[in-house]
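hiii, so i know i said id send this last week but things got crazy w the move. better late than never?? heres the sequnce for the chain we talked about at the cafe, plus the structure i predicted for it. fair warning i was half asleep when i ran it
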Amino acid sequence: MRYDRGGGMAVDAELRGMLEAILEGQRLHAARLEALDHRLAGVEQRLDRVEERLAGVEQRLDRLEQRVDRLEQRMDGLEQQIDRLAQRMDVLAQRVDALDQRVEQRFDEVERRIGEVVAAVGEFRSQVGGVNGSIEYLMDKTARLERDVYLLKRQAQP
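okay and structure toks below
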């Protein structure tokens, strides 16, 4: 840049050129700023859409979390129900064991009583055998006596 005091025209032209360049630069900057503004508006719109999508994703995640919570609660309920059923099964198993012991005791008692009955039947048979023997003896004796009576009656007849 030249500074000439005497030729004011040269300085004016040079200043004008510089001013024009500055103005042109400002226009370019303004155009760039306008383009940047449009790009930023586009980025803002994209960010808005991303935020909306993220909000939608967040809502879906919230619903999924609620479903998972409900499923966990159902699982807890099922586990508690299984625990209750297992306890009932244990109680039933104990009752069956006790019943099995009672049945075994009763079978042992029945077998003992059957043994007693068999022994009593054996004794009864022996007694019946003795009675049968006595009856046969008495029948033989009766038959002999009847024969003796018959013979005596025959001898007593003239």
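btw The chain has a mean pLDDT of 90. thought thatd interest u
miss u guys!!
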